[in-house]
Amino acid sequence: MKRQIQVSINNEESVVIDLVGDESVSVDITDPPSSLELCKGQKPFIKIDGLRWRDGEHFHLSWFEKELTVDDCIVIQYKESDELASGTIKEIKYDQPEEKCSFCHKKKSEVDLLISGPTYNYICDACVVLSHNLIQEKIKD
Ligand SMILES: [Zn+2]
What we know:
- The chain folds into two domains: about 5-95, no CATH class; about 110-140, no CATH class.
- The chain has about 140 residues and is mainly β.
- It is built from two helices and ten strands.
């Protein structure tokens, strides 16, 4: 019997993991980062790795690493002899966490204006005013 684990993103790219004999494989999915981690410059990504057990030994494996964009859909399926085994589908839809000011951590919905930087860094209008006033005071000294 042929056993496979198939991981696909948006029904396009896919990784097929063939299971040999009675070996088992564990698949780990690293969750997309929180908005705080994004504020620290981390890009959203998915990583699929795990362990392969064969003859009492295990091997670390890494199958997949991909940067995510909003609404990416990741589907994990377990198949036996090309038939999809029931109840073994995992589907994850990547949804970007709400953007926050990197300085005061207020959410976009709590401020009048949120200005974005190049790598998931943000500053709100109140922090800009506060910074401006601090600079003015420093210049006077
Ligand atoms: Zn702020």
